[in-house]
Amino acid sequence: MKTKVILVIPAAGILLLALGLGNTCLEQRFVDFPDGRPLLAADYPFLSGFSRVRADQPGNAADAGVPVPVPEAPNSILAERLLLPGTAMETPLYIIESTEPGPVVMVVGGIHGDETAGYRAAERIISWEIDCGTLLVLPRANAPAVANRKRVSPGGSDLNRAFPGSLRGTGTRRLAGAIYNVIQEYRPHWVIDLHEAGQFERVSSGSLGQTIIQPEYAAGDLAEQVVETLNSAIREEKSKFLLLRGGLIRGTLVGSLSGTGIEGLMVETCRALPLAERIEYQLTVVYTVLRLLGIQVY
Ligand SMILES: [Zn+2]
C-alpha cells in the first residue's frame, strides 16, 4: 500500500519529539520519504482555492506510519538589496537567511511582466520564514515589464532570451547579467523560475500551461515529486501538471544553468485558470521543493 506523508500535525509532531525523532535540516534532506511518496498537498496552508484533499481523510494523515518532520523554530532574517540601483531596471532581491546552514534556493518571478501569478506568488514568499538554508527571492525580475504588464522589456527585448547576459552590456542584457551575477555569488542548489502560459498543455500540446519544465541535464527525481504533490490536489484532468524534460531555448534563465551544477526548473501555470488558483500552484511548487530539500517553512 502506498503511504502518504503529512507535513505538520501538531499531535504527531509532539509525539515524535517525545520519541526523539526530530531531525535537523541537513538530516532531512531527501530522507523523510522512504517510500518515495511526495508531501501531500493537503498540508499546505495556502492550498484553499481548489479541490484540495483534506488532511483528515483516511490514509492521508498520521496513520501513514512515516516519520513526520518535527518543525524547528524559524530562525531566519530577511534582508533586501537592490539590483541595478538607480536605473530604470532597479529591482529588489530579498534574502531570507537562516542561522542554520542548509540548501540555497532562488525563486524568480516577473521575468515576463504579463505572467502575473509568478510575481504575485514570489511577493508572498518574501514573508516566509525558514529553519535552515537560504531563500533568495527576486519577485519582479523585469520590473519595467511588470509595471507595463508586458512580456518583454520596454525596448522589446525578452529577458528570458538574454541569459547569462553581461553586466557590461546595456538594457535587458545588463539586467540578465545582474541576475546571473546573483546566481554566481550565492551558487544556489536550485533556481525556480515562475512563468505562465495561455493554454493547457494537456489540451493543446506545446502551449505549456500547467507544466513543470526541467532541462535535460537535470538529476534526481525532485521535479517528479513536485508534480505528484501538485496533482494529488487537482481534480480536473486538464489542470493536472505535466513534467516536461528537454532542451530549453537558448538564453532562458534555467537553460543558462547548464554545466554549472545548479539545478533549475520552470513553472508554467495556465492563465485560463483563476489567478488565485494559479498563485497557489506556484506557491506549492516552491514550498514542495523547499520541503524536499529539508527546509521547513513558516
Ligand atoms: Zn514566461
Can you describe this structure?
The protein starts with 9 loop residues before the first helix and ends in a 6-residue tail after the last helix. It has helices spanning 10-18, 116-125, 143-148, 171-186, 222-231, 275-292, and strands spanning 76-83, 91-98, 104-108, 134-138, 190-197, 211-215, 242-246, 263-270. The protein is globular, with a radius of gyration of 19 Å. It has an 8-stranded mixed sheet. The protein has 298 residues and is an alpha/beta fold. Bound molecules: zinc ion (ZN). Zinc ion (ZN) binds at residues 112, 115, 160, 195.
Short description:
23% of the residues lie in helices and 17% in strands. The chain is α/β, with parallel strands linked by helices and 298 residues long.
Salient structural properties:
298 residues; alpha/beta; Aminopeptidase; 6 helices; 23% helix; disordered N terminus; binds zinc ion
Total number of distinct structural domains: 1
Q: Just name the CATH architecture.
A: 3-Layer(aba) Sandwich
Number of helices: 6
CATH homologous superfamily label: Zn peptidases
Biggest beta-sheet profile: 8 strands, mixed
Strand element count? 8
Specify the structural class.
alpha/beta
Task: Give the oligomeric state of the chains in this entry, treating copies of one chain as homo and distinct chains as hetero.
Answer: single chain
Which molecules other than protein and nucleic acid are bound?
zinc ion
Poorly predicted runs: 1-24, 26-42, 45-71
* CA(first)-CA(last) distance: 31 Å
Order of helices and strands: HEEEHEHHEEHEEH
Assess the beta-strand content as a share of residues: 15-25%
Could you give the order of strands across the largest sheet? Answer: 1-2-4-3-5-8-6-7
Mean of residue pLDDT? 81
